[in-house]
Amino acid sequence: MQVNTIKKEPVKAQESNATERACTFEEVVRGYSESDALKEASRCIQCKDPSCISGCPVGIEIKTFIAKIAAGDYDGAYFTIRRKNNFPSICGRVCPAEYQCRKACVFTKKGSPFASPGAINIHFLERFIGDHGIKKNLDVPAEKDERLSKIKTAVIGSGPAGLACAGELARHGISVTLFEGLHKTGGVLRYGIPPFRMPRDILDFEIDSLKKMGVDIVPNRLIGRIKTVEELFKEGYRAVFLGLGAGIPSFLGIRGEDLCNIYSANEFLTRVNLMSAYKFPEFHTPVNIGRHVIVIGGGNTAMDAARSALRLQKLNNIAPDTTIVYRRTEIEMPARRLEIEHAKEEGVKFRFLVKPEELSGDEKGFVKKLRCLECTLGSPDGSGRRRPVETAGSDFEMDCDMAVIAIGLKANELLTKVTPELKLDKYGDVVVDKETMATSIKGVFAGGDIVGGEGTVIEAMGMAKKASKAIVDYLTEQCCSVR
Which domains does the chain have, with CATH numbers? Predict the structure, then answer.
């Protein structure tokens, strides 16, 4: 079949009005109606060898679930997705599909899923089906192996990797205890992603589904502080999965970074999202918000921080003035295109090819100015993107009475520092076998951002699926007298 004969354009997901949504933390993307989903599903030409699956880190049978949507079999589509992905409503909202499954779609032209006729909106279809499953409260049949039913396993961290691993193990009938250091479950899904992208009722439903599968979730337990991995084994756990995440913020290392009203994106978003600062005084978590907010960085976290800051300005009757400063151009920005466009629509300003040099404050120690240098782009660096080159004598200042540093996260070291036998790389990330996610400690596996640095939600889940399969194989071999 000739792809260029397909004339149908992608069906756009419904969104709330930009002016109205910038004053609230309600969800921005409304998703597909049933008619929209049917129209979009009908665009899929059901390739004999679907390349889109190769772009999905958990290997969802994309062709199959879309065909079931087109046939009106929404329950069947849901069960098809859930065979590979326990959290379709989450992934359908936050996965960078344009860099993964949509990029691999046969309709993608010249590396861009946005070129005509446009890649299938796989993520919006997945979200539609995930939400259908939530509305109908569909239960996925377990694939329990009775030989494993009395074996205890521990999952440390309740972010995407931990949740995915716990779900897969529970599906096999294995007893799972999931330890979370914070008082609420979800990891970066809860403290890092704002409600306007990830509604809390959706997150709560997906997590509650694990409880129904038998996962014992234990919050307020910092493994590495209250007990060690060795102690978990002594308590009878036969395998341990480390989904620790990357929770240590990176900083610029410039003068003035210790002034008041300067946040790491981690702290700022945790205050806003996990501790509900946007609902102050209903929730007792105030957050200072400036009249001139500058967010430094170009990833999804920077977009989330800027869009949250702009909303807080409006909720506090401050004329919105939030600017993202990035040292490359928009083309090199790692953030999702959708998030960049939403930020622009809502009124976030952008300054490209700008490198922060110094933050300065007043006599009370509060930040007031950001001094920058203009840049040009040179040859590519190790990331494959063109390196920013400073322009001599191009100094200029920007008003700044609040800054958010959103330039990445490093490995969470709380547990790894007290586990010397755990092999780490030079960045402090856990070294694993890429096929099994096994660490240097027998019976200990790892996945997510603690392995190889920051990644996407679905990449973390993909690692967790590998690890859970390896854990099942390991437990079967070690504990169950292989037939």
Answer: 3-136 (1.10.1060.10), 146-247+413-479 (3.50.50.60), 251-409 (3.50.50.60)
